[in-house]
Amino acid sequence: MTAKRKVLICGATGFIGRNLTEALTLRGDLEIHAVRFTRPAYDCPGIVWHQGDLRDADTVSRLLDGMDVVIQAAATTSGSKDIVTRPHIHVTDNAVMNSLLLRAAHDLGVAHFVFFSCTMMYPSSGTPLAETDWDPAEALNDRYFGIGWTKIYVEKMCEFFSRLGTTRHTVIRHSNVYGPHDKFDLERSHVFGATVTKVMTAADGVVTVWGSGEEARDLIHVADLVDFVRRAIDLQKTPYELFNAGAGRAVAVRDLVSMIVAASGRDLTVRYDLSQPTIRTALCLDCSKARRELGWTATIPLEEGIRRTISWWRDAFDRRSD
Ligand SMILES: C[C@H]1O[C@H](OP(=O)(O)OP(=O)(O)OC[C@H]2O[C@@H](n3cnc4c(=O)[nH]c(N)nc43)[C@H](O)[C@@H]2O)[C@@H](O)[C@@H](O)C1=O
Questions:
Q1: For a substitution probing ligand 1, which of 191, 206, 222, 281 has the most ligand atoms within 8 Å of its CB?
Q2: pTM
Q3: Looking at the 3D structure of the chain, how many domains does it have?
């Protein structure tokens, strides 16, 4: 019998980390270790919990010792309000954590490291952009300067350590992820989570959207991203790969809001508030590399993902019918 691969999921209480943890514990061939920091553990059969601050080098070495795979989903992250008003909160901790994790993975002989990057380096485009369509000589959107370059630094560190021959790395440039366990508060959430909350809780029949509604994003359901990671840790044999992971469709914020309102079944008026934080860019990813090399493609249509997320939101938050 082959030994189970030991998989460490960092950030297991966060949005992506929790969805990964809950899905991967269902597999019989993996032994799942989950790292939490300040948030409490949740019930999940078969999981081994660890607590630790990933900004501390000794803690990082203790956690990675003996692991075969590290899935690095721990990040300081929040939506456009923080990106616009206090962008520095996304920079330092992410740079420190990832630097320590990548060094420890190499020193301790971890076989595979998965890093969630972002898509902030891409220029605004309503047509799909491939991994090679980012030109490092082009300026990043001003709003994304700090976290965008931090992610690129970590991407390059992954490539650097891959070249040393011990650890294989997968970098995933995923688009805007949504689904169960996302942030749904109005301060820190992204556009999808915030809009679901606004629509479901609107007391006066009005939903107020930040910006003009013309900004566009590529939206991917978290279950599709989990499927991506599953394929990467099973199929990738090369030392370093960087992949786009998105739905391949740019959806204007105003259309997203209309779809969420329609799925809610509520009769609401939508207003646009130009004084609120907004990031004028359009994102759309070409994921043909992932299709070719991992057989992956996003499978959950946005309309279906919206229905599923509203249903989850009702179970998790809507106590009015109790
Ligand atoms: C993929 C990418 O995704 C994220 O960056 P983002 O897309 O810029 O962030 P967001 O989802 O918060 O905003 C998208 C747009 O939506 C508008 N918007 C309207 N109404 C609300 C609203 O109520 N809340 C929020 N947050 N935004 C709103 C808002 O004004 C902005 O123009 C990062 O996680 C980053 O890590 C990353 O890689």
A1: 191
A2: 0.97
A3: 1
Question: What is the rounded distance in angstroms from the CA atom of residue 51 to the CA atom of residue 302?
Answer: 35
Say which CATH number the domain at 134 has: 3.40.50.720
- How far apart CA 81 and CA 188 sit, in angstroms, is 7
- 44-102 pLDDT, tens digit per residue, is 999 999 999 999 999 999 999 999 999 999 999 888 998 899 999 888 999 999 999 99
197: in domain:
no
pLDDT tens by residue, 273-287 = 999 999 999 999 999
Residue from 173, 120, 85, 152 nearest 282 by CA: 120
Structural domain includes residue 317: no
Which pLDDT does position 77 carry in this prediction?
86
CA–CA dist 29, 2 (Å, integer)? 8
Kindly state whether residue 231 falls inside one of the protein's structural domains. Answer: yes
Mean pLDDT of the chain: 96
Domain hosting 27: range is 5-183+219-250+283-300
* Tally of CB atoms within 10 A around 274: 8
The total number of residues written for the chain in this structure: 322
Mutate to test the pocket of ligand 1, among 129, 210, 215, 249 (most ligand atoms within 8 A of CB): 210
56 is a domain residue = yes
Residue tagged 């939506």 (tokens): 79
Euclidean distance between CA atoms 198 and 200, whole angstroms: 6
